[in-house]
Each structure stands twice: as structure tokens, then as C-alpha cells.
Design brief:
Helix content of chain B: 40-55%
Distance between the termini of chain B: 36 Å
Number of helices of chain B: 6
Structural class of chain A: mainly alpha
Largest sheet of chain B: 3 strands, mixed
Number of strands of chain A: 0
Mean pLDDT of chain B: 89
Shape of chain A: globular
Radius of gyration of chain A: 18 Å
Helix content of chain A: 55-70%
CATH superfamily of the largest domain in chain B: Cation efflux protein, cytoplasmic domain
Largest interface: A-B, 60 and 61 residues
Low-confidence stretches of chain B: 187-193
CATH topology of the largest domain in chain A: Rna Polymerase Sigma Factor, Chain: A
Order of helices and strands of chain A: HHHHHHHHH
Number of domains of chain A: 2
Shape of chain B: elongated
CATH architecture of the largest domain in chain A: Orthogonal Bundle
Oligomer: heterotrimer
CATH class of the largest domain in chain A: Mainly Alpha
Order of helices and strands of chain B: HHHHEEHEEHE
Structural class of chain B: alpha+beta
CATH superfamily of the largest domain in chain A: RNA polymerase sigma factor, region 2, helix turn helix motif
Number of helices of chain A: 9
CATH class of the largest domain in chain B: Alpha Beta
Chains: A mainly alpha (181), B alpha+beta (193), C alpha+beta (98)
Mean pLDDT of chain A: 87
CATH topology of the largest domain in chain B: Alpha-Beta Plaits
Strand order of the largest sheet of chain B: 3-4-5
Largest sheet of chain A: none
Number of strands of chain B: 5
Chain lengths: 181, 193, 98
């Protein structure tokens, strides 16, 4: 018997929709690291990311009949994870974004201080140094592929504010990545 | 945010912010001034590049996460197996009018999957029961391992499914329709496009 | 009622071919933190007018025929009830485990 472990996403998603918990478990193990990475970039915290991803996977199991294309199950899971991550972000602080300042050079964390040896490292440092709201808009736009409307809904804010944050984030990333172009 | 050049990027009058929004809108509706400007196209290409770098960064983050141990998955997977997707209750006969026996659709699908999976080189995809005027038809799709003779595999699946359903249910099965979806390679290759 | 439910649960688990018991009404779980281990009664026993109503959802081994195992569960439940008890017994096979 062919092992489920090696089955493609689409087949596992179809079986999961029909109630096969073993197939869903394979999907969970396969995609958990990626989903954790997205949630960590969004929430800024691995602990919050763990909770968001676990909640998302339990919710996903119950909502599998809303999955339109079984082959796109990872994107679908990423969308649910993004939603659970922003739920946690919203419950942490009120929707009015007060702090829009970048951390001073002295206050920045290890990823931001490390000397970038590659474009990816440079981008990682810049994203980590962005104010939280700008970083969240960036991740939802560039990684999860959300529209402005969707980002505004997820973060509990308005489209003009989202556009403003994206513009500022882009300006920062664009100018600081200049050295790598 | 203001663009240092008073005339926008490449003298087109468009700012970085506007180019970003143009990109987000899928470059529609088309703006010839932007599309025909080499400087604007260079900026758009850079914006696209940082977008794909962002996705690459998350993929790299994922690869660097230390292996998750069983306890991470434990409560989550426990919760999932408790939530069995039952579907309808299909009655089973009982001689006692006050005893009601049934098997769920979810359990029947499990029987179908196990029967199909038991055939060498086959993995079942979707399966379901369809009833019209008391006639029950079982439909399932299978994926077949490269090198497995497809027709024989489909027939073996049909017979295994029929025989297992005879064993575990009292359904009068009219037909077992097996659709071969695709041929699969052994190992999952990693990132799906 | 709870003592009887627990006794019936033990009876059902002891039947050959019964691999697991599931809750009759699967709860919708909202988060991993809502899971409370072992708190749910797995055999539902309720009073319906003059008679009892006993319900259970079981997972059975694929080795034996599911209808036979289900009938065995119902018979064992009836045998374990106090003599002369009027009862409706509902047995649902929720999983057939290979």
C-alpha cells in the first residue's frame, strides 16, 4: 500500500474533506513549519504563532468543505492562519495604531543588527525593524496575497490607512534594499 | 512620503507609492506613461522582486524552524480525530423494534478508502455514496502509482470496495464507479507550484 | 444516571471488536485550549417518560462485520440494564478501523 506520507497535497485534501483524519495529519505535519513562519512574521512572536497555527488547523478541519481547489490547500491554510494571527494581534491592542516609529538602531533585535550577507538577510532585517502595523500589512499583501480591503478587515482598520502603511513600508524597503540591487 | 524628484519617477509624475498601487492592481487599467517608461518598469520590477523575496524569506524561515516534536501536534491531532465527520446515519437491521443500529456515512467512506488503498499502488482520493430511488451508487476517484496497470487496478478496487461494503453494511449497491484521476510518482516532491 | 453510564461504558469497551467510543454529539471545538481530557460521558443515558434512552457511538475493528458488532453492543447494553428496564438502545458505528 502506498504511504499517505508521500501523497500529493490535492489527494490528501480530498481525503481530509471526506473525513480521513490520517490524511489531514500528514497535511498538518507537512505544512506546519511554513504556517508557523507566516504566523511568526505576522504576530512577531513564536508563542503567539504556535497558538494561531493550532487554532487555525482545528478550524480548517471543520471548514474543509469550503476548500475550492484541493491542490491549493497550502494557500487556503495560510489564509486561515493569517486570520487567526490577526485575531490575536487585534486582541492585543486597540485598532488605532499609535506607534508608527521604527525602532532606534540601539533598540533593534538580533536579526536587525546582523550584517546582511544576502538579499534575504537584508530583507529580513528591514522587515523586522518596520513598525508592527506596516510589517503586518506587508506580510498580508506580499506573502498571503490579500487585497487592501481584506487587509483592512483583518487588521480592523480602513483601506486608506492600509494604503498609507504599505506605501511607507515600500518606501523603507525600497530605499534600504538599494544597496542590493 | 514624497519622491525626491519633483517630477516623479523617470519624470512621469508617478510616485513610488502610486507605482506600488499600480502593481497591486495588476497593472490594470494600463497606464501608457508608466508602461512605456524604462525607469518605472525598473521600479516595478524591483517591487515585484521584493515581493517574491518576501515569500522566499518565509520559506527559509520555515526550513530553519527546529523539528516540531509530537507534543506540538498532540492536542491538535487528538482534537481532530475526536471530530469524526459522520454525515448521515445509514440504518442497519435489528429484530428488536426498540434497538436502533446504524453506521455513519463517514464510517462507510472509511471502509471504501481502506478497500481501495488495499490494492497495490492505489490511493483513494474522494469517495461518496449517491442514492437515487433506493439505488445506491458508490463513486470514488483513485490515484495510481506509476507502473501499476491502470485497468486491472481499477477493477481490483471495484471488487474490493464492493466486497467490503457487503461485509460492513446492508446497502444494496447498484454500481461502484472508479475514476482514475492521475498517476502519481512515489515521493512528494516538496514545494508545490 | 452517571453511575449507570459509566458502567455501560465499561461493558461496551469490553466487547470484542469495539475499538473506541465517541461522543454522541461531537462538539465544535474553537481552540486547542478548549479540549478537556476525558470529561465527556461517552454513553448517553437519559430518561424519556417511562423508559430509558441509551445511545452510544462506537469505532469497530474492520476484522468483524460492523452490523454484527453493533448488534453485540446493543445486546450487551440490554443485558447490563436492571431487569425489567424499558429502554430504547441506539448504537451508531462511527468508524470502521482497519
Amino acid at each position: 500500500m502506498t504511504s499517505l506520507d508521500e501523497a500529493p497535497d490535492a489527494l490528501l485534501a480530498q481525503r481530509s474533506t471526506d473525513g480521513d483524519a490520517a490524511a489531514f495529519a500528514v497535511l498538518v505535519r507537512r505544512h506546519a513549519p511554513y504556517l508557523l513562519a507566516v504566523a511568526t512574521r505576522l504576530t512577531g512572536s513564536r508563542a503567539d504563532a504556535d497558538d494561531a497555527v493550532q487554532d487555525a488547523l482545528i478550524a480548517a478541519w471543520a471548514q474543509l468543505d469550503t476548500l475550492q481547489d484541493p491542490a491549493k490547500v497550502r494557500s487556503w491554510l495560510t489564509a486561515i492562519v493569517s486570520r487567526k494571527s490577526t485575531d490575536r494581534i487585534r486582541s492585543r491592542r486597540p485598532s488605532s495604531e499609535l506607534d508608527d516609529e521604527r525602532a532606534e538602531p540601539g533598540e533593534r533585535g538580533p536579526e536587525q543588527r546582523a550584517i546582511a550577507t544576502s538579499q534575504l538577510d537584508a530583507l529580513a532585517g528591514i522587515l523586522s525593524s518596520l513598525p508592527e502595523g506596516q510589517r503586518q500589512c506587508w506580510v498580508l499583501k506580499e506573502v498571503s496575497g490579500y487585497s487592501y480591503d481584506e487587509i483592512a478587515t483583518e487588521l480592523g482598520t480602513t483601506v486608506p490607512i492600509v494604503r498609507g502603511k504599505l506605501a511607507r513600508a515600500r518606501a523603507t524597503v525600497f530605499s534600504e534594499m538599494e544597496a542590493w540591487r | 512620503m514624497t519622491d525626491p524628484s519633483a517630477n516623479g519617477i523617470g519624470g512621469t509624475g508617478y510616485t513610488l507609492e502610486q507605482l506600488g498601487e499600480y502593481l497591486d492592481a495588476g497593472r490594470q487599467p494600463a497606464v501608457p506613461a508608466i508602461d512605456d517608461s524604462a525607469e518605472c518598469q525598473a521600479v516595478l520590477a524591483s517591487l515585484e522582486r521584493v515581493g517574491s523575496l518576501s515569500r522566499e524569506l518565509v520559506t527559509r524561515d520555515a526550513a530553519e524552524i527546529p523539528a516540531l516534536d509530537e507534543s506540538w501536534f498532540g492536542s491538535l491531532l487528538g482534537a481532530i480525530t475526536r471530530e469524526v465527520k459522520a454525515g448521515r446515519d445509514i440504518p442497519l437491521a435489528s429484530s428488536d423494534p426498540r434497538t436502533h443500529l446504524s453506521i455513519t456515512e463517514g464510517a462507510i467512506r472509511e471502509v471504501v478508502r481502506a478497500a481501495g488503498d488495499s490494492v497495490e499502488g492505489v490511493l483513494v482520493g474522494r469517495c461518496g455514496l449517491h442514492e437515487t430511488d433506493g439505488a445506491v451508487r458508490v463513486e470514488l476517484s483513485i490515484s495510481v502509482l506509476l507502473g501499476t496497470p491502470v485497468r486491472q487496478a481499477a477493477e481490483a478496487v471495484r471488487q474490493a470496495v464492493y466486497s467490503e461494503l457487503l461485509k460492513h453494511t446492508e446497502l444494496a449497491i447498484d454500481a461502484v464507479d472508479v475514476t482514475v484521476l492521475d498517476v502519481h510518482i512515489v515521493a512528494w516532491e516538496g514545494e508545490q507550484p | 444516571m452517571t453511575a449507570l453510564a459509566q458502567q455501560l461504558e465499561a461493558v461496551v469497551r469490553a466487547i470484542p471488536g469495539v475499538v473506541a467510543l465517541y461522543s454522541i454529539q461531537p462538539a465544535v471545538l474553537r481552540s486547542a485550549r478548549e479540549i478537556v481530557a476525558g470529561a465527556e460521558p461517552l454513553v448517553s443515558v437519559s430518561q424519556q417518560g417511562e423508559s430509558l434512552r441509551v445511545s452510544v457511538s462506537v469505532g469497530v475493528d474492520a476484522v468483524s462485520q460492523a452490523p454484527v458488532t453493533a448488534a453485540g453492543v446493543a445486546a450487551a447494553i440490554r443485558a447490563a440494564l436492571p431487569p425489567g428496564t424499558e429502554a430504547d438502545v441506539i448504537v451508531r458505528v462511527g468508524r470502521v478501523i482497519s
